[in-house]
Design the sequence.
């Protein structure tokens, strides 16, 4: 929030399942989630050794690039970090870029399907009636279609895509819980979790429950995760990147380690609407170039939610 308010120049976020990407739909920051193994996690609190990623959260794409350029690469303390180059060229044209767009995000939902309820990015349904929800859903689709038109005008070739679905991603979610339970096992055994008094905190129960997951199931899940990685690598090999909203692919790519960046592409009900650009492994420069070109061609980077009068 301090970054979104302009109190600080940037923040370093940690993402295991969405904590860098998701805030864009609430406070409008640009969140860059690098490839797993791109940035050292030394000094950060661990949650899941095979999923945790560190990345910049800034007020513009270019700021994210500057911060990533300063923090990426091996530091001799986190052995998961690869020595891969990050070559940024802000002037590279988008002509020739092949970008997929998630068809279900960019097409209007059939009448009666809602699509604008509580929890949908860019709008909080709350007490909204069906007509208001439908109007919000239509506004979201329009914003996304406008974003697609901007990228096409900049020279990119856009194609509709369906995300890989052979491997059941939701069935692998417990990997995070098991690794978190291992990371905080000393705290659980010492009953330190009893001090977690927040009314909505379920971490203590999660840590204790995960102790009963058989090692066989955890290992099998990791083997299935390898199949998921192969499936996504084959999919991403066809495109330079793909764009989406509504967090499409967020859970899967947090398991596969692919990079993504989220930025504003409009507002719905005075809340920012995210556009997520996901790319190939270690190709943050590509997704940043796409996001930067879009950001420079639109007005959204300078727009902020209207605060109520005090």
Sequence:
């Amino acid at each position: 929030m301090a970054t979104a308010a302009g109190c600080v120049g940037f923040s370093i976020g940690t993402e295991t399942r969405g904590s860098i990407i998701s805030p864009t739909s609430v406070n409008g920051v640009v969140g860059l989630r690098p490839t797993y193994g791109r940035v050292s996690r030394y000094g950060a609190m661990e949650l899941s050794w095979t999923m945790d990623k560190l990345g910049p959260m800034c007020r513009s794409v270019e700021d994210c690039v500057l911060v990533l350029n300063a923090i990426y690469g091996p530091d001799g303390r986190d052995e998961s970090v690869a020595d891969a180059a990050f070559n940024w060229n802000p002037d590279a044209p988008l002509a020739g870029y092949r970008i997929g767009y998630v068809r279900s995000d960019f097409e209007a939902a059939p009448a009666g399907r809602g699509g604008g309820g509580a929890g949908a990015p860019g709008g909080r349904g709350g007490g909204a009636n069906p007509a208001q929800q439908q109007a919000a859903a239509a506004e979201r689709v329009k914003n996304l279609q406008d974003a697609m038109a901007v990228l096409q005008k900049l020279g990119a070739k856009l194609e509709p895509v369906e995300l890989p679905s052979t491997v059941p991603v939701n069935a692998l979610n417990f990997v995070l819980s098991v690794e978190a339970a291992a990371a905080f096992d000393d705290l659980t055994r010492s009953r330190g979790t009893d001090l977690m008094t927040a009314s909505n905190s379920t971490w203590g129960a999660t840590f204790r429950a995960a102790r009963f997951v058989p090692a066989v199931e955890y290992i099998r899940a990791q083997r299935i995760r390898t199949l998921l990685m192969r499936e996504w690598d084959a999919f991403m090999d066809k495109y330079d990147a793909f764009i989406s909203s509504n967090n499409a692919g967020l859970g899967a790519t947090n398991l596969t380690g692919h990079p993504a960046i989220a930025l504003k592409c409009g507002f719905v009900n005075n809340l920012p609407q995210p556009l997520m650009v996901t790319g190939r492994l270690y190709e943050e420069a590509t997704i940043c170039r796409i996001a930067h070109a879009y950001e420079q061609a639109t007005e959204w980077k300078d727009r902020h939610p209207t605060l109520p009068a005090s």
